Amino acid sequence: MTDHSQTSPAPISLAPFSSAGQFWRGNIHTHSTLSDGALPPEKVIAAYKDAGYDFVQLSEHFISHFDWPIANTRALRSKNFTTLIGAELHAPKTSAGEYWHIVAAGLPLDFAPCGENETGPQIAQRAADLGAFISIAHPAWSQLTLQDGLSIECAHSVEIYNTGCDRENDRGEGTYLLDQLLNQGKHLSLNATDDAHFRHGGIDAFGGWVHVKAPSLNPDDLLTALKAGEFYSSQGPQIFDMQLTGSQLKITCSPVNSISLVGGTSATQSRIGRAITSATLDLSKLDNSWLKGPPSKWFRLVIVDEAGKKAWSNPIWKDEI
Question: Phi and psi at residue 146, in whole multiples of 5°?
Fold first, then answer.
């Protein structure tokens, strides 16, 4: 009898599911009356805490001619809930001729506003140089082009979903820009967020968030995990594990109606059904598009539940697993 024990690959649990720590639910893009939000900071923090979040960042619009501050929310932290310090940075100008919207998490409170001749890529780089997690905000709402995205060379992430933009003007998704940037070789994560201003009864809140895998709720641990891509994003469904054996990827999750792998071409691998909680999909088939596309260098998972709510893994590069 042939012994196959030496040739069968061992299962590998992919990050962030293989990483130490636990998942913490948070939102890194929201607003209060410190800029153009409708609720004071303490009420925004309380709303997220009551909704089951573990952390939040008040990312006030940071633009010198409005004199809006970087929100100092340290006094609103507690044993079981924390805050990140950051802002939504603005500078001229995108290809649409408008101000950039760049969310920076982990800023020092004395971070200087945009200089008179400073551009969006420059202020983003200045924030990144100080250790911030840089996210390109609401690309569809801002009508960002591929060249816009490429110009923010220090970006860590792209907003794949923005609740406020979705519910107010149907421009809440960032898939189109993220995937093009990935195909250009940019190693980026994706994040879902709210951009909540708590107007109109708060319809722009609690629609998208990140689950960050970190050893503790310490803000430094959360920031380190965000920059390392140790998280996934969701509108509701949960991803429990992604385990790779050879080219076979087993996904386990909360009940959903579709589990799909997408890459840099039109080729996909999916399992469709009702209330399914697992699927094993073949990564090699992402390279076998009937349209004869080139092999994709990356893939990402998206799951969709009965209500149409999604969860997304960060992109995974094949040469890194």
Answer: -60, -40
